[in-house]
Write a structure and sequence with these properties.
Elements (H helix, E strand, L loop, with lengths): L1 H18 L11 E5 L3 E3 L3 E14 L1 E8 L4 E7 L5 E8 L2 E7 L7 E14 L3 E13 L5 E15 L18 E5 L5 E5 L2 E3 L4 E5 L2 H10 L8 E6 L8 E7 L10 E7 L2 E6 L5 H4 L4 E8 L7 H7 L4 E8 L2 E3 L8 E6 L4 H5 L4 E6 L5 E4 L3 E3 L4 E6 L3 E7 L11 H12 L19 H12 L19 H10 L18 H14 L26 H10 L17 H12 L2
Parallel strand pairs: 2-10, 12-15, 14-16, 15-17
Antiparallel strand pairs: 1-3, 3-8, 4-7, 4-9, 5-8, 6-7, 9-10, 11-12, 13-14, 16-19, 17-18, 18-22, 19-20, 20-21, 20-27, 22-26, 23-24, 23-27, 25-26
Helix pairs in contact: 6-11, 7-8, 7-9, 7-11, 9-10
Length: about 575
């Protein structure tokens, strides 16, 4: 019966759309826009999108457009999904398409992409596309007819046929092409110009093209619109550069992602990569990724890199090189990599290293190899020289700690945990409060500007910065009187409280637990009231498992236990 009613509703709505103009439904403040390229070439296929902004609730709609049929051919029309579509239907000089939801489902409203029209340019000239009317209908079959009368003009240009004398037709390469994917992302395909003297292949995306791409991109699950800029492989290129309008990468807050894809690596940046102060009055910025020539490096470093990828990440502001740093908007980099069979067997030991200005090698903690994508990925907060390496760090005193060996070795290879000497880890020793906080800060790569610290922490202490960050972020709250007791041992429940707070600060918070989640442990009643929620949440998430019988909240944590927990956090 429900399906029959839905069928009747579809038929009724379609009848209203196509043959009536009844206006009894009062919508909110409605506005409509048309996204279209300003210039195309004969033979090109392109998309025109009609968007609605601030629409009141409605169940279906009818759009009527007009266009120059002597210049353009309508190839395809796409409306909203999850419903029933009618059209395109030609009626005089208009093309009509309609859409309605089906069944007892919520109405639409707000900001929506209503319809996408795919055209083919068949001859040169100026083609006008006009959105004549939009009719909205609610569930009660009350409709509102809106006279929009908005127009866009598209310049269709002839393709060059070369020199005189009946020459061969050679279609020019367009400087940019916008393609929308099914996942809501938008790709911009650019051509490059190669400087043979420097080996730099440069591409430029202008504000109009970027704005057009962003207007048709859809937000992902994280709330970002993603635009992918693709650069083709260019023979002789050793560096690829993308010139962008500065205003599109110096926003106050991040709303969009721009992914710069090249044959030698991908760079993903947010639109707040630069601060206003960094950009100044400059109109453009340039993002560059190049092959790092290892022959110019110290021999020990060059030998350690071998045939693995090494890249230089740099930026220009205006025409000048810029030493970019921004801890609030890290850039993600990924590089294709084919490991050896030995490396693939232990791929967690594939790491990324940073070569600083003094020639020191530093491991990037977040660098890792993904077997499914066959890429090495890492995020950075500054420009510099980076390379892929393989590090298998181990210690001589791990016998008897097989349950923790992998975690210790992987986290040591990432540069996150240190041994008590070059050859020993002391896995059975109790870990100090300061050392545990230091591990947390390194694992999650936490940063914060701080101007005060605990009174029992001195500026010369190796954990001074980590505790200052943890105090500023509210992870470490001390024991009273602005003291932290950094050299005391840490209980397991204190450790779990620190982890819980740190994960929340890092945007990796776990689902909240209750005392019911820890009642399976024989000693759950020993968990202090201040720690119950944190302990229960980590147990519920699987980060903490106990020993099968007890949770041991008041026992002191061992260095091996801390390493295992850091490993689990790292891989969340």
């Amino acid at each position: 019966m429900r399906n029959y009613i839905s069928f009747l509703l579809v038929i009724t709505l379609c009848f209203i759309f196509l043959f009536t103009g009844q206006t009894v439904y009062a919508a909110g403040t409605d506005s409509f826009s048309i996204d279209a390229p300003s210039k195309v070439y004969e033979g090109d296929t392109f998309t025109v999108v009609v968007n609605g902004t601030g629409l009141g609730n409605f169940y279906g709609y009818d759009l009527r457009i007009g266009f120059n049929s002597d210049i353009l051919t309508l190839e395809k029309v796409e409306t909203q999904k999850d419903g029933f579509s009618v059209g395109p239907i030609s009626k005089g000089n208009e093309v009509i398409c309609a859409f309605t939801k089906i069944g007892d489902v919520p109405e639409m409203g707000g900001d929506l992409k209503l319809c996408a029209y795919t055209f083919k340019a068949k001859s040169a000239g100026t083609a006008d596309i006009t959105l004549n009317t939009v009719e909205l209908v609610n569930k009660k079959l009350e409709s509102e007819l809106i006279n929009v009368n908005k127009k866009v003009s598209i310049n269709v240009q002839k393709k060059s046929t070369g020199g005189g004398g009946g020459g061969i037709y050679i279609p020019p390469e367009p400087s940019s092409e916008i393609i929308k994917g099914d996942d809501g992302t938008v790709r911009i395909k650019l051509q490059t110009s190669l400087d043979k003297n420097t080996g730099k292949a440069e591409s430029t995306v202008d504000a109009k093209t970027l704005e057009e791409a962003l207007s048709i991109a859809q937000k992902d699950s994280s709330g970002y619109k993603r635009v992918i800029v693709e650069i083709p492989e260019t023979e002789g290129a050793e560096e690829y550069a993308l010139v962008l309008p500065a205003e599109y990468v110096s926003k106050e807050t991040a709303n969009n992602l721009i992914e710069f894809r090249t044959p030698i690596g991908c760079i993903e940046l947010k639109d707040n990569m630069f601060t206003k102060e960094q950009v100044g009055d400059e109109e453009t910025v340039t993002i560059r990724i190049g092959v790092l020539k290892t022959s110019a490096l110290d021999k020990d470093i060059s030998d350690s890199i071998g045939n693995r990828p090494a890249r230089r990440f740099a930026v220009d502001v205006g025409e000048k090189a810029f030493d970019w740093v921004n801890s609030n908007s890290p850039v993600s980099i990924s590089i294709d990599y084919k490991p050896t069979s030995a490396e693939l067997a232990e791929h967690e030991h594939i790491v990324v290293c940073y070569l600083d200005k003094d020639g020191n090698v530093n491991t990037i903690p977040n660098g890792r190899y993904n077997p499914s994508t066959k890429t090495v990925s890492f995020s950075v907060k500054h420009t510099g020289q980076y390379f892929v390496s393989f590090v298998k760090k181990s210690f001589s005193d791990l016998d008897g700690y097989g349950w923790a060996r992998k975690a210790i070795e992987v986290m040591a290879s990432k540069g996150i945990i240190k041994g008590t000497s070059e050859t020993t880890f002391s896995p059975g020793e109790k870990i100090l409060r300061a050392d545990f906080v230091l591990l947390l800060v390194r694992t999650l790569e936490l940063e914060a500007d701080f101007d005060s610290n605990f009174d029992d922490v001195n500026p010369n202490d190796y954990y001074y910065e980590a505790l200052g960050i943890a105090k500023k972020l509210g992870i470490a709250k001390g024991v009273g009187d602005n003291k932290f007791m950094p050299k005391e041992n840490i209980t397991r429940q204190e450790m779990m409280c620190f982890i819980d707070r740190a994960l929340t600060i890092a945007g990796k918070g776990v689902e909240r637990g209750t005392i019911e989640d820890i009642e399976k442990f024989a000693d759950y009643s020993k968990v202090s009231s201040f720690a119950v929620e944190s302990v229960a949440s980590l147990v519920k998430s699987g980060i903490v498992a106990g020993d099968g019988t007890n949770i041991n909240p008041l026992d002191y944590s061992l260095r091996a236990e801390a390493a295992v927990l850091m490993y689990r956090i790292y891989n969340r």
